Batch of 4 targets.
Target 1
Amino acid sequence: MDLKQLNAFIAIADLRSFSAAATKTGLSQPSLSRLLKQLETDMGVELIDRYHRPLDLTEAGAFFYDKISTILTEIDTVTSMTQRLSAPSSILNIGFVPSVLYGLLPEIIAMLKQSSPDIEVNLKDISSYQQIEALKSGEIDIGFGRFAHKDPWIQQILLRHERYVVALPKAHALAHIREQRLIDLANNRLILYHQTHLPIATTVSTSNAQSVKLTAHTKNNRTTNKQSTLNTPITEPLLHLFAQYGISPFMTTTVSDLQVALGLVAAGEGITLVPASLKTVRTEQISYQSLVHENVTSPIYLHTLKDFVHPSIPDLLSAIYHVYEQRGITYRQQKFM
C-alpha cells in the first residue's frame, strides 16, 4: 500500500461518494476506484460496501479508517514541521482567543515590534481547542489560550492567572456592590459562552448547602430546570467555578461566544463572569464588580509545538515579561524547550 491509496480511501470514506471524492482529490473516478481496489487487494480485505447508497464502510473498513486517519494526520504534521524546520518563515503567526485581545496582547505586540523591528506578525482569532490543530498544520506558530491541553505534539507554559469579575446589568440590584460572592449570584440567570470545556470534571451533589437546579438550553432559546443529580460531572468552566463552592446557578443560558454573552447582560437578560481585562466593554450598560474569591481565575497559556519553536518566540516571551514587569504583574519566567 502507498499514500495515494490511503488518501483515496480516506476521501471516499469521508464523503461516501466516488464523485465527491474525485472532486475533492482532483482525481478521476476511475483512478480513485483503481487505487481503492489496489489497496483492498494488497490487504485482502473489502473496505467499502459499493452496493450500499450512499457508500458505506464495511466493519473492517470502519476499523481501518479509525486507525489510519490518525496515522495520516501524524504524517501530515511531521511533513509540515519538517518543511518549517528546513525553512522557517520570517512571519510569526500568533493565534489568540478574543478575551486575550482585550487584555495585554496589543501592548505585547507593540513591545515586540519595538524591540525587534524586523519581526512581521500575523494575528489570528482562533479558539483554544482549534489552536492545537492549527499549530500542527502550520497555520499558527504559537497560541494564547485559556485552557491546558495534553497533546504529545504540544508544549505549553502558564503565563499568569487573571481574576474573573462579574458582569451585571447596570439596573441590577447588585450592580453597585464592589465585592461579590458567588453564593449571592446563584439566583440569577448565568450566561455561559465557553466553547471549550475543562478536561477534568468537578462534581456537584444535591446534599450541598445550596441545593440547586441545573438547566438545559433548548433550540428555541428557552431554559428548563432540572434537579441536579448526585455527582453530576461539571466541565463547563463557569459552572466549574461555582461547583468548587458547592453552588450551581438557578438558571443558565448558553450562547455562541463572549461578545453575545455581554450583549445579553447589557440587555438585562442575565449575568456572567469574564476575565478582568473585559471590564472596559459596554461600560454604559454593564457594571463590572470584583469577586471576593481569590481562586476564581482564568489562566492564560502560551502553547507551541514540542519539536519546532519558531525563532521569534523567545523575542515574544521577552516582550510578554517586559509588559508584565511594567504593569506590576506577578509571574514566573519560563521558556520553551
Note: Residues 204-230 have pLDDT under 50 and may be disordered.
Target 2
Amino acid sequence: MNLFRFKRDSATPQKPKSKAREWRDAVVFAIAAATLIRWSAVEAYTIPTPSMEHTLLVGDYLFVSRLHYGPITPQTPLQIPLTHQKVLGLKSYSDLIQLPTYRFPGFSSVQRNDVVVFHVPHEQQLPADMRTHLIKRCIAVAGDTLEIRNGQVWLNRQPGPVAGQLQNTYFMEVETPDDAVRQALRSQGVVDYDEPDGIPRASTNPATGKPGFFISCPASVAEYFRQQPYVKALTVPKFQTDLFPDVADFHNSGAASAVPHHWQLDTYGPLPVPKKGQTIALTPANAAIYYKIVAQYEHNTGITWKDGMIQQNGRPLTRYTIKQNYYFMMGDNRHNSEDSRFWGFVPEDHIVGKAVFVWLSIDPNADFLHKIRWDRLFQPIS
C-alpha cells in the first residue's frame, strides 16, 4: 500500500511555474548569456574622445572582438565600486580577490596597424581588468624597433605601412577669421569638440601673433586649405613635452631616465619594443625603458628605482629576461592622442580585443534630424 502510494505520488506532475518565476528565470538566463558573450566573444564600446579621428569619430559605437586575440579570464571576479569599499571594510582594490589570468587561444595575434582595445597601463592603483579601456592603433609589435621621423613612422629602419585616416594639428593663418572661413572649416569636416557648435574658435599663433585657427585634419584637407587664397600659412605648431622613456613611470612616480632622449611627438626613437624571452643588459642609458616592465607588469618583488637604475632588493639589476610580449600604440590623431609616446608599452596581458566595425554613429554637434551618421553604419574598421 505504501509502495503504491509512493509510485502514484512520484508520477504527480509538478506545479507549473508562475509568470513571475518564468520572467525571473528568463532575465537570469539573459544576463548570464550576455555576460558570457561579453567576456568571451564581443563587446560594444563608444568613442568619447577624438584621439583616433578620422578613422574613428566621437560618437562612434563599435563592436570589439575578443575572439581575435583570445578572451582572457577575469582577474577580479568580484568587482566592487570604490564607493562601496568602506562599507565592506576594504582599504584598496588590493584587498579584493585577484586571480591569475589566462588567455584562451585566439585565431590571430596582434598585428601592426590593428585597432586595439586594451586596459590603460598606468592606472596601477587598480587591477588590470578594472582599469579604463583605451582604443589605439598598434604601430609596432614585439621585436620591432620604432622610430618617428618628421611625423613618419619607421619600423626596423624602413618606412612603416600607413593605415587609417591619420590627421595632424596645424595653425591655419588667415587674414580675417570670419564666418566664411568657419563655413569652409565645417564643409571640410574640421571639428573642435570643445566648442558648442563644433567649429574651431579663432585664435592667434603664439609664435607669430598672427590670427587664424588651430585645426586638426587629414593631410588631404590640409592640402585643400593650402590652395585657398584666404589662407596665408598652414604650419605644424611645435609641441614640447616630456615623453616616455624620459618619464619612466607616467603619473605614478618620479622615475626619470638618467640619460634623457628629449624625444618629441613627431621626432621619436629609435625605441626597441620588448619581446618575450629577450634578455636585456640594463644600463643607465636604457633602464628607464624597462622600469615599468620589471617593477609593475611582470610582478617582480623588491623592485625600486635609484640613481637612474632598476634595483632589486637593494642591488642594481644589470640583466633581465622579458616574460611577455609588448606593443606600441598610437592614436591616428597624432598630435591629440595620449598614447605610448607618453606612457610606454602595452603588455600582452592588457590586450582586450580588436575593433572590427562601427554599428552606430551619432554626431554630437548635429541637429536632431542629422544626428545619425548613416554612412558610417556597419562600416569595417581598418
Note: The longest strand covers residues 351-361.
Target 3
Amino acid sequence: MNMAESRRDPAEQAPQRQAFEPAYRALHRTGELRRRAGALWAMMGGCRLCPRECGAERLQGDRGFCRAPGTRLVISSYGAHFGEERPLVGLNGSGTIFFSHCSLRCSFCQNWEISISGEGMEQSVEELAGLMLCLQDAGCHNINLVTPTHYSAHILGALDIAAARGLRLPLVYNTCGWERLEILGMLDGVVDIYMPDFKYWDAEMASKYSAGAASYPELTAKAILEMHRQTGPAQYAGGGIMQRGLIIRHLVLPNNVGGSEIIMEWIAQNLPADTYVNIMAQYHPEYKALEYPELSRTITSAEYAAVVEKAKKLGLVNLDIQDRWLL
C-alpha cells in the first residue's frame, strides 16, 4: 500500500466535495436503499450473500461459513487510514471500517486475527451509521468498507440511516473480489468506488489456499467486469482524490501461486488501459502459510519486477507500483 499523500490544501478540495453527490443518496431519497437493505437482510435466511451460498439460517442466530454471528455485526476497528492507495488517502485519510470474519478464509491471510478468528466488537446497524458520520466529521475523504460481503445487509441499512443524517462521502467497497453477480446488482447505484482483489488465476490454487473456493477466478473476473460497468474507470476531484471508479488490487505471491502475469493479461484484454491497478509486494507468510513450502517465504524483487514489466508491456498505464521492489 502506498503511504504517499496528496499535497493540495484541503480548502481547495472543498468545492469539489460539496458539488459531488454519492450514488446512494438518490436511492435513499426514493426509499429504494431501504428496500434493498431489507431484501439483503431476508437473504440471510438460508444465507446466500457470498458465493459459498452456505445456507446458514443467520436470521435464527446460526453462524455461516464466514463465522459471522447470525444477524449480529462485528467490527474490528475504524478510523482515518493512511496506508491505502493515494487517491483514497489524500490529506485526511480514508475512513476505513474493518469488519470481522470473512467468507474466503485464505491460508495466508495477513489479517487472520480479524478475518478468521473474528476479533472485534459487536455493533448495531444504528451504531454503524454513527461510525460513518463520525468518519465524515473527522474529514475523511470516503467511507472504506473492508471485507463487507457478509455484512452487506447491515451496511445498506446503516447507509440509509446515515444518508438521512447528512452522509455525503463516496462509498468504497473493499472486497476480496469473490462476489455474486446478484448481490452486485443490488449494490448498483449504491457503491461509488469498487476495490476488489484479484488473487488467483487458477481454480486449483484458489481451492487449495482459500478453503475450497475453486470458483474464485471465474466469479471474480465476472464480478470485476460488473463493477466496471457500474462505476467506470477512476474519476478524480481536486487534489487527486478519487470519487468514483474501480481499483483492482493484486498481491504478488511467491512461486507464481497467483498467476500474476496472466491476471495482468486478462485486465489488459477486458478493461480500459487506464484501469487503476495496484500491484502489491507486501506478502509475508501469515496464518497457515508455513504449512505450504511454496508460500513459506516473501517474494523476490525479480518476481515483483516481472509482473510490473508485464503490465507495462501490455499497455496498462495507471499502475500503482512499489518502486523499491524493482530491480
Note: The chain has one domain: 14-47+75-325.
Target 4
Amino acid sequence: MTAQIALFALFSGGLVGGVLGLIGGGGSILALPLLVYVVGVTDVHQAVGTSAIAVALNALASLSAHARTGNVRWPCAAVFTGGGIIGAIIGSSLGKLVDGHLLLLLFGVLMVGIGISMFLRNEANADPDVRLTAVVAPSLVPRLLAAGLGVGLLSGFFGIGGGFLIVPGLILATAMPLSLAIGTSLVAVSAFGLTTAANYAVSGLVDWPLAALIVAGGVGGAFLGSRASASLAGRKRTLSAIFAAIVIATGLFIAGREGLAMLH
C-alpha cells in the first residue's frame, strides 16, 4: 500500500465518520464509492467487503454513545436484526456473484432512491413511547422481521451499513421517532456489516489494512463531526437536505459511469 492510498483511505474514513457525527447517519453509504473512486480499489467485490467491516466498526463506536443516552430500543433492535442477519447472509452471497459494474450501477440507483427518501421523511405520526411488549408482539414482531429481512438483503448485497434503509424500516414497522430509530438502527448496522464482511472475508475479499485506515479516519471524523453538530444543531434539517442532494448526485454519477462502462 502506497502512502497516497493510505492518505486517501484516512480521508475517506474521516468523511464517512464526519457525516455520521454531524447529522447522525448516512455517511456509510459513501464508503463504497469512496473506496472505488477515491482510494482506487479496482476489485468492486473487495471494496464491498472492506467497506462492510469499516462501516460495522464505526457503527459500534456510535452505538455506545446512543445507548448511554437511552436512544436504543433493544427488544425492537433484536427482532429487526435477527431477520436482517438472515437477509444479509443471502444478500452478500448473491452480491459476490454479480458483475462489479452491474453491482455499482444498481448501487447508484439505490443511492438516488435513498436521497429522495431523505427529502420525504416525515415524523408527524411518531410514537416516542413505542415498546415491544407481549400485548403488541403479535402485530409488531412480524413487521419487524419482514422489514429487517428486506433491509438486510439490500445491506448485504451492496455491503453498506444501511442506516438510511434501516431507519425508515424501523419507523415503518414501529412508528418510533427519528431519534430513537437512528440509535436503534446502529445495532442492525453493526450486525449487518459484520455478517456481510464475514461472508466476503471467507472468499478473501476484505483488505484488512485498508479497513483499519478507514476506521481510524472514521473515529477522527466522527469526533470532529460531533463537535460541529453541537454548534450547528439548529441547521440540521438544512445539512440533511444538502447531504441528500449530494447522495442523489453521487448516485446519478455512479449509475451513469457504470452504465456507460457496461455499454463499451
Note: Residues 3-263 form one domain.
